[in-house]
UniProtKB/TrEMBL annotation:
Protein name: Cell division protein FtsW
Organism for this UniProt entry: Bacillus coahuilensis p1.1.43
Membrane topology reported for the UniProt record: Multi-pass membrane protein
Cellular compartment(s): Membrane
PANTHER family: CELL CYCLE PROTEIN (PTHR30474), PEPTIDOGLYCAN GLYCOSYLTRANSFERASE MRDB (PTHR30474:SF1)
Gene Ontology biological process terms in this record: cell division; regulation of cell shape
Molecular function as annotated in GO: lipid-linked peptidoglycan transporter activity
Transmembrane segments: 76-96, 102-127, 139-159, 165-189, 196-212, 218-235, 242-259, 327-348, 360-387, 393-415
Pfam families listed in its UniProt record: FTSW_RODA_SPOVE
Annotated signal peptide: none
Primary site of residence: membrane
Length: 431
């Protein structure tokens, strides 16, 4: 009679178009059949009778197969995809306002278009890749990130006060490149049910040491925040320990800064003082705060037509100021709203995700994206101190493009497979 059971399963799964979903459906149906056969056997039925009755209770294989195919078909969040597409197109606009410098225009604009194509490829690759398999590559991601750290520290070239490892072809590795790989590494490691807290402390300590040695303030803040959120979600029973770790990190960092206050570079101290009172440093560190405030105040609803503005980092960290000045607060406000809606969209779908690993990926991705988006907006508005941090989907740069694309791609991968939770996981959860 086993042949009849497997014939039934083959008939049902023949309607399932997705190969990945077919495996999950077959496993789930086989488990339920085995459970029902065991129950009927205890009720006095013979093995053959129990199997026949269990199959009959399942109903028509044709109707069941069609129903399960509809239920388990891969999903795609068209709303999120549309929002990402629109905000990415908005990101081209700041580059259109550098027309007076032809050399910059012919380099930046084509590179931005290439970045958008790369972004699309990365999103599709991560969406199609089964996110559960990331766990298999956890150590590879950590090793890769540590190698990148070593290359930057040992062979890095100082550019604008930060070390970069330059590769032939114009490709550079920075602290944000390392942060991107480490983000995937932590997701992969914490997605493993056997994740060990001892290794968590070791990996976190080594990586934080790198960011401190670079030094990279913005990357350090982002890294500590994101890993903290991931650990808080992954190990709810250890939250008191993590709070103590964070408090210790703050105390040690503050003590180190206080002891070495005389060794702090003058420009670093001026940056802090300029945030507090930019008028006193209007010719150096305070210039950006005052200039951004003036440009945003002149923007109006529809922006200023023509002319170039005196704005450093006009295409990266201060791209929002460039965008708002030339196209107005109507578009600037819409950009902020759209950026927030992208995060809200991902969080809204969280309630539909049953897989703990999938939920961790979404929470981690939203945290990384939201940190950068909100900080950049608050930075250009003068609410928080200036650090080198880009605006997702708007700022120019390949590293940031790769980072945001991976976040969206991973979300779509989880969303696509939200109904494909292994029956073994359901059993474990019900115990």
């Amino acid at each position: 009679m086993n042949e009849r059971k497997f014939e039934y399963l083959d008939r049902v799964t023949s309607y399932i178009k997705s190969k990945e979903a077919k495996r999950y459906v077959e496993e789930e149906l086989h488990y339920h059949l085995q459970q029902e056969i065991a129950r009927l056997t205890l009720d006095g039925y013979s093995r053959e009778e129990a199997e026949q009755k269990a199959i009959e209770q399942m109903g028509s294989p044709d109707r069941l197969g069609a129903k399960l195919n509809k239920l388990h078909r891969p999903r795609f969040d068209w709303v999120l995809a549309l929002m990402v597409f629109v905000i990415s197109l908005i990101g081209i606009l700041p580059l259109l306002e550098i027309r007076s410098d032809f050399n910059i225009f012919v380099v930046f604009l084509p590179n931005k278009i290439v970045s958008l194509v790369i972004s699309l490829v990365i999103i599709l690759l991560f969406m199609w890749f089964p996110y559960q398999k990331l766990v298999k590559f956890k150590w590879l991601f950590f090793i890769l990130s540590f190698v990148m750290m070593w290359l930057i520290l040992e062979y890095g070239v100082m550019i604008n006060g930060a070390p970069y490892f330059v590769i032939k072809g114009g490709i550079v590795l920075s602290s944000f490149s390392v942060l991107t790989i480490l983000f995937i590494a932590w997701l992969s490691y914490l997605g493993d049910s056997e994740a060990n807290l001892l290794w968590v402390f070791i990996l976190f300590g080594v990586s934080v040491y790198f960011f401190v040695m670079v030094p990279a303030l913005s990357a350090t803040l982002m890294y500590v925040t994101i890993v903290g959120i991931l650990l808080w979600v992954r190990f709810p029973e250890r939250r008191r320990t993590f709070v103590m770790m964070l408090a210790s990190f703050i105390v040690v960092s503050s003590t180190y800064v206080f002891i070495n206050i005389d060794n702090i570079e003058r420009y670093q101290l001026e940056r802090l003082l300029a945030f507090i009172n930019p008028e006193n440093y209007k010719d150096n560190a305070g210039y950006n705060y005052l200039n951004n405030k003036e440009l945003l105040s002149k923007s109006g609803w529809f922006g200023q037509e023509g002319g170039q503005i005196d704005l450093v980092e006009f295409h990266t960290d201060f791209a929002f100021v460039n965008l708002t000045y030339h196209y107005g607060w109507l578009l600037g406000g819409f950009t902020i709203l759209l950026g927030l809606l992208i995060a809200a969209r991902m969080l809204r779908k969280l309630s539909n995700i049953r897989d703990p690993f999938g939920r961790l990926i979404i929470l981690g991705g939203v945290s990384l994206y939201s940190f950068q988006f909100l900080y950049n907006i608050m930075m250009v508005l003068g609410v928080v101190p200036y650090i080198a941090i880009s605006l997702p989907f708007i700022s120019y740069g390949l590293t940031s493009t790769v980072q945001y694309s991976m976040i969206i791609g991973l979300f779509l991968s989880v969303f696509r497979r939200q109904n494909l939770v292994r029956i073994t996981e359901d059993r474990g959860a019900s115990k």
